[in-house]
Amino acid sequence: MSRDLLDLARTVGREAAALVRARRPAGRVGVAATKSTPTDVVTAIDEASEQLIRARILEARPGDGFLGEEGEEIVGTSGVQWIVDPIDGTVNFVYGIPVYAVSIAARTGGGEVALGYVINIATGEEYAALAGEGAWRWDGDERITLQGPPPATIDQMLVATGFSYAADVREQQARAVVRLLPKVRDIRRIGAASLDLVALADGRIDAYVEQGLKPWDLAAGGLIAREAGLVLSGRDGAPDERLVVAAHPDVFEEYFALVRACGF
Ligand code: IPD
């Protein structure tokens, strides 16, 4: 079942990525509207990407639920719900910074995410995971198993984070970053949470922390990171909108304590 769902996610994700690449004009992309705050933007291409993904998935599986960043939630009757960000990293996309992704996850009856698929639209790099079956990156048709980064001491860690669109949360995040920066090797703000999480799964960064993520930012990349052997947690256990912390199991407790002490 999950493999069929993953095949569908990959087919649809590739088609959406191709649409976004084809429709992206040179230079900056026009913003169609702002959402929660003036910094939270959406373009007509985000909406077209979501419409395509929603239509293809529901044509193939009419009873499924669907939760996308840009549209109304569909509850569904099959027990499977899709969680989709049609362009994660919209601000990068608007400015032409080639770091934005399609993120597709599916959760089953128990609420657990069963599959995650992320494609970097600009580079075509594809990542996936199935719950209990591991995580991988595709190199052509070959699947390269992901094992996360090696353990590192905190002061040697390259850490990624991101910022909420809400002004009060941004102020708090800025204060936390000021405290964290002197303790680690450096901090990256990649600009797409799904790509932060797959970068962690692929050993390109050492740890991650962010507050304010929505389900479509977290679902696919979170499963890929977890299946690559990383520990993910939040304030009270499972990561959620309030806090996502991810790191190698050997250093997770120390890193978690540090980011909490910094004010995340
Ligand atoms: C955003 C990106 C960003 C993260 C924000 C997200 P969007 O998603 O993932 O890296 O810091 O919290 O909202 O708006 O580009 O889909």
TrEMBL record:
Pfam family name, one: Inositol_P
CDD domains tied to this protein: IMPase
Chain sites annotated for binding Mg(2+): 69, 85, 87-88, 217
Record carries keyword Lipid metabolism: no
Organism: Aeromicrobium phragmitis
Protein name per the record: Inositol-1-monophosphatase
Similarity comment text for this entry: Belongs to the inositol monophosphatase superfamily.
Domain of life: Bacteria
E.C. designation(s): 3.1.3.25
Protein keywords: Hydrolase, Magnesium, Metal-binding
Matching InterPro entries: IMPase (IPR033942), Inositol_monoP_metal-BS (IPR020583), Inositol_monophosphatase-like (IPR000760)
